[in-house]
Amino acid sequence: MTEQKEIRNNQLAANNQKIVNDFCITICTVNGSGSATANNVLYRTLFRMGIPVSGKNIFPSNIKGLPTWYVIRASMEGYLGRLEHDDIIIATNKDTFTEDLSYIVPGGVIFYSDHIDLPLDRQDIIAYPMPIKQLLKQADVPRNLRDYMENMLYVGIVGQMLGINFDVVNEVLTSHFKGKPAVAESNMKIVNLGAEWAAENLEKKDHYYVEQMPPISDHILANGNSAGALGALFGGMQFCGWYPITPATSMVEEMMAFAPSLRTDTDSNKKTYAIVQAEDELAAIGMTVGAGWAGLRAMTSTSGPGLSLMTEYVGLAYFTETPVVIWDVQRVGPSTGMPTRTAQGDLAMCYKLGHGDTNYIILIPGSVTECFEFGWKAFDIAEQYQTPVFVLSDLDLGMNQWMTEKFEYPDKEINRGKILWEKDLEKWEGEWGRYLDVDGDGVPYRTVMGNEHPKSAYFTRGTGHDEFGNYSENPITWIKMINRIKKKFVTVREDLPDPTIRTKPNSKIGIIGMGSTDLALIEAQDILSKENIQVDYLRVRALPTNQMVQDFIKNHDRNYVFELNRDGQLCEILNCEVSQYSDKLISVSIVNGLPMTASWIVSQIKNFEEGK
Amino acid sequence: MDTAASIQSNTNEIGLTQTDYRGKPSTLCPGCGHNTVTSQIQAACYELNIMPEKIAKFSGIGCSSKSLNYFLNRSFGFNGLHGRMPSMALGASFADKSIKIIGVSGDGDTASIGFGHFKHLIRRNLPMVYIVENNGVYGLTKGQFSATAEKGLQLKHQGKNLFTPVDICMEALISGATFVARSFSGDAKQLKELIKAALSHQGIAIIDVISPCVTFNNHEDTLHSYVWGRQHESPLHDIAFVPYKANITLDDFDEGTIKEVVLHDGSSIVLKKLEKNYDPTNKWDAIRALEAAETEHQLITGLIYFESDKQTIFDMYNLVDQPLNRLTSEKIRPSSKMLDAINKNMY
């Protein structure tokens, strides 16, 4: 990719041509410096100018003062995965300056704060100094807001040099500071100050330009945690027990922000849900399991370490057949790992979480809009199959801003599964037992607390039990129970979201991925196609897998399984699920804390294919 | 052949018999104090005319937690994880706040693995009766020290206990519990009255029941034995607690007196109730009473502390009146218009 860009930039430079709406800008700063608003304004402006964008925040596990990078990719073709190199850098952090410089492609650009007095020893890039401190002195800004507004200067300077439409910047600022027009206005003043200074003092020498495109009407900008929270609220979430953990915290915080307007009963002005911050993850899941058992749509949101703590309760929910939804917004493990970096390393754990014989349904959203969709769907599946359902997101999907399809209203009615109330029990023929497999699909009928029918109550236990919930250590009873539970996971396969499949003509090679690597895999597929390596791409969206996954693997000579972990966990699971074709599976995995890139995928496939 | 009157006398005000409150036969050791607690829970619910379906019961892991199955067959029950019953009960209680919640735990469950959960449950003031069947020993794993075992206690395989014990009532008090009581499983009558009072309380009600383990911790000189209890129990006072429905009194046990009570195993204990002028609404008096009892090696029993007007967790959550678990789909799924507005905002 770097090579390609180098060639492209050299050719364009030679011909004095423009590079329009296709670049990557990285803002190099320190965290806690208030740059988030400026970055947000910059990338939302590009989006509203009709240019596909993504925004990724590469940040430390720290509150103030450590290096942070915000990466905006604009791509008129809509390729929005991470790139390994930058076209344009906005450098305000002296500590990382030298290293940041090395990431710029030849022909690229650096805008830098002129207080950074380090050598700028690259002749192949264009450099624009920015007198940030000096300009700020001219500005009429209250001292306490200076640090925050400082960042608006680079919005103005960079915007001017790229040709951004400042009317759109103004629009974005107005909607960002909704209800605070004075704040929006003073920010815009700073933007204008930067733009005017650049117009007068900088001569355009680089090739990067922004141009208006047709408006993007079917997409929005959102992150996966907000989307998951909204999905849950539209899915009828009634109870959420949670405990703060990066990068899952913002999901519940977003839920707390949206819930009052979405889920307050209009007749009584009272709430139809409860969100309780627990004392730890042990209690967060305990509350959630209690609520799920009692007939509420219950969920929790956590990340790896939290899930390790929740394990015993999830096993209890599995064995007592209690519906709960558990979001795991993955970060890098093992142990505390890299809390603010992304990975897909919890898949194997979730698949068989806990001691003894267990297995779980896992939904794996690959886009922000799928976070919304699986947010509501997970409750239907959990209640229908009376079992814990995991939704596996990750930091990249959860916390970064994505251009994503608009959220679609649920196309199915809420499904509460096989739940019996008083009138149902009155009509019930024969004896009712909590764990009787009446329909032969492995899913029994359940009653919940509050049911006043004298036969509704049963005793729930994590110990061995018969079909009526009575304690049992009988070998035959145990075998029957544990196998009947397993049967649910056969039934469920064809009910879960199908994989997505993207094909190229005459392809004999498959690539398989999951979750947030989607955009990088799509881009890689297209790059390979241009180089006459045709690959079909399947994205797994749920475990256990269904027939479509099996057929895809079968129908390709070899399948590269790409994922963000060390050991190739998805590949391991596919090896078990589709063991007859395990010789067709090749694991290609990486975990470095960063989102996967198309260039890495392309190079891996080429290496393997050349080795054939 | 029964007359109407005799039928009536065998049922409570809602027409249920004692049998309607029973559970499965107990599999605990004969003579176990926990079985008395079980009977008194049944009796209290019967006498308060609570429909069993309007009660839900929860427990953790251990001998005490097993006893959940031995009462109230017609109530929903969940025997959960070791020490983590409080969170489960809390989550479930949100489904229908008209249901009375009874939790049964042990000293291992509450004072060790679940210590944090116990205290956070109290902080949240969930309306719930939380009974600790406290015997100072791990019974189900055959006789290890629990956190309530007194310092210096000798057990067969464990040797000498090195650490100072946890006082469950003191912990409950300083965590802000709104109802703190202690009883002795041998004092069935007092225990029943305390359970009745607890069931009528609007908030968290903690009852620490000294419940001797007949198998692993019943040395004459140990805190949680019948012999020790017989000699050192120092009950607080007559429980003249007036609940919302019925007047509950201990009719044969006066304040500040010492009384010999015959236990179910034939032995007897000496109980001393708190003085008549003891004020259970004064937290400092309660703390002083517990401290004094500890110094004098006594176990005070009775209602140690009571506070009636503290907000419960439900007061803080402003939930709809209808049970949450009976809300229809229309009540829990927002309209498509609302989603349109969200999509518009995210442009």
Shape of chain A: globular
> Biggest β-sheet of chain A, characterized?
7 strands, mixed
Outline of chain B = globular
Structural class by secondary-structure content of chain B: alpha/beta
DSSP strand content of chain A: 15-25%
Strand order of the largest sheet of chain A: 11-10-12-13-15-14-21
Spans of at least 5 consecutive residues with low confidence of chain A:
none
Q: What does this entry look like structurally?
A:
The complex is a heterodimer of chains A (612) and B (347). With 612 residues, chain A is of the alpha/beta class. Chain A has four domains: 2-217, Pyruvate-ferredoxin oxidoreductase, PFOR, domain III (Pyruvate-ferredoxin Oxidoreductase, domain 3, 3-Layer(aba) Sandwich); 222-405, Thiamin diphosphate (ThDP)-binding fold, Pyr/PP domains (Rossmann fold); 418-497, no CATH class; 500-611, Rossmann fold (3-Layer(aba) Sandwich). Chain A contains 20 helices and 23 strands. Chain A is globular, with a radius of gyration of 27 Å. The model of chain A has no long low-confidence stretch (mean pLDDT 95). Chain B has 347 residues and is an alpha/beta fold. Chain B has a single domain (26-316), classed as Rossmann fold (3-Layer(aba) Sandwich). Chain B is built from 13 helices and 13 strands. Chain B has helices spanning 4-9, 33-47, 63-66, 85-93, 107-113, 115-124, 168-175, 188-200, 226-232, 283-295, 313-317, 329-332, 336-345, and strands at residues 55-59, 76-79, 100-106, 128-134, 137-138, 144-145, 154-155, 159-160, 179-184, 204-210, 258-262, 268-272, 302-306. In chain B, a hairpin with a 5-residue loop joins strand 11 (258-262) and strand 12. In chain B, helix 2 packs across helix 8 and helix 5 (107-113) crosses helix 6. Classes of the chains: A alpha/beta (612), B alpha/beta (347). The interface between A and B is large, with 74 and 57 residues. Strand 17 of chain A pairs parallel with strand 2 of chain B.
